[in-house]
Design a protein that fits this description.
single chain, 435 residues, alpha/beta, Aminopeptidase, Aminopeptidase i, Domain 2, five-stranded mixed sheet, globular
């Protein structure tokens, strides 16, 4: 394997070990094993040369380093915060309370609801399982634990073509009916006597009556893999946005420089797929709270003066030109797999990129031989938004929205370029270390 292929292999391993947003954050904190964990409800004793991280809701994380040589020099070139941000959630089905439904005394299906906007049909006829977190009573205290039923457990079966002959002419999937996963089948007339909560409790090593609360999601069990004539593509669940998460984490941890003249900040937010309007989302005060505490302690400067010399990269994957439907792409801004970093543009500021932020990233890419391409929605097709402009509601900094090109965004199994993840790592390293 070449370097880029090895990077993508490690990305696939990371995704495989991260079946929920909670597992993503746990795996990142394991990577930050020599960083000091901070608690939001405690006083922080920050110092030059220190490396830190703080977690909110077990599903969002902010990490930062304060270089030994850091000084705030007004008017200098971006020596405030250099922030890079991505999101760790993906569209999925969340399991509702009292989830089990018995059908004709023979089957058990689970009651689920959509989380985010997804291609629902892509969840059908493939092995699924359940992961997330539970909160349980441990000797009178509420304790949290991550759970993953690490086996093929569920399936959402399609209706046979013989019974739905017009399905290939267009079908409106009903999430309350068509998308209920099959959990158990029994010949005894009771639909099976094993409950989901008992499986979850067994996985967690607790009794079912100890469980007080849950946040559980379905996930696709099909492992990521290389595809293409020369292994030049990868397919996996959750490439949006774990491909960017992985690239940012690797670039952040590999760019340690105690002589640096900026404060590197890594942000991994939850709930981007549902609007970021949570206490742990990009549209919360999480980032502003952390930056404010840094500025008031170790820097001893007003936050607004530091933000004026700061910059943010918001990284969330972009739509590559589709090989079967090139007509959906903009005629001149149409990225391709393995074409490198995608700078994202929108006149109505769904993306934050402007001429100034574009210029900085283009220069970094040019100076470091990193390929760069552009994306804009076709002018008559509405697009989505991401976390950059939402973060700017609370922390006003010059920001750019970038991504990596992919196909089948919001499917349960997506496609991306083998070489693009390494390009993102290279960009983040260059961004966090340039003088």
């Amino acid at each position: 394997m070449n370097k880029a292929q090895e990077t993508s292999r490690k990305l696939i391993d990371f995704i495989d070990a991260s079946p929920s947003c909670f597992h993503v954050i746990k795996n990142i904190t394991d990577e930050l094993n020599d960083y000091e964990e901070l608690k939001e409800n405690e006083e922080w004793e920050l110092r030059p040369g220190g490396s830190y991280y703080v977690v909110r809701n077990s599903s969002s994380l902010i990490s930062f380093r304060i270089p030994e040589a850091y000084t705030k020099d007004p008017g200098s070139n971006l020596n405030g915060f250099r922030i890079c941000a991505a999101h760790c959630d993906s569209p999925a089905f969340k399991i509702k309370p009292n989830a089990e439904i018995t059908v004709e005394d023979r089957y058990k299906v689970l009651n689920v609801e959509k989380y985010g906007g997804m291609l629902m049909s892509a969840w059908m006829d493939k092995p699924l399982s359940v992961a997330g977190r539970i909160l349980y009573d441990s000797d009178g205290s509420i304790t949290e634990k991550l759970v993953n039923i690490n086996r093929d457990l569920l399936i959402i079966p399609n209706v046979a073509i013989h019974m739905n002959r017009n399905v290939n002419e267009g079908y409106r999937y009903d999430p309350a009916k068509d998308m209920r996963p099959l959990f158990a089948s029994s010949s005894s007339g009771d639909g099976g006597n094993i409950s989901l909560i008992s499986l979850i409790a067994d996985e967690a090593g607790v009794s079912p009556d100890q469980i007080l609360g849950t946040d559980l999601f379905l996930y696709n069990r099909v492992r990521g893999t290389f595809i293409g004539a020369d292994r030049e593509m990868i397919a996996s669940r959750s490439l949006d946005d774990l491909q960017c998460v992985y690239g940012l984490v690797r670039g952040f941890t590999d760019s340690r420089d105690d002589s640096g003249d900026c404060i590197p900040v890594l942000c991994i937010f939850d709930n981007e797929e549902v609007g970021s309007l949570t206490k742990q989302g990009a549209d919360s005060t999480f980032l502003a709270d952390v930056l404010g505490r840094i500025s008031s302690s170790v820097i001893n400067a007003d936050l607004s003066s530091i933000l004026a010399d700061s910059f943010m990269i918001s990284a969330d994957n972009a739509h590559a030109l589709h090989p079967n439907h090139p007509e959906y792409a903009d005629p001149t801004n149409r990225p391709f797999l393995n074409g490198g970093i995608v700078i994202k543009f929108n006149a109505n500021q769904k993306y934050t990129t402007d001429g100034r932020s574009e210029a900085l990233i283009r220069k970094l890419c040019r100076d470091n031989n990193i390929p760069v391409q552009t994306y804009a929605n076709r002018s008559d097709i509405a697009g989505g938004s991401t976390l950059g402009n939402l973060s700017n509601r609370h922390v006003s900094v010059s920001t750019i929205d970038i991504g990596l090109p992919q196909l089948a965004m919001h499917s349960s199994y997506e496609t991306a370029g083998t070489y693009d993840t390494q390009y993102l790592i290279d960009l983040i390293q260059a961004y966090l270390t340039f003088k």
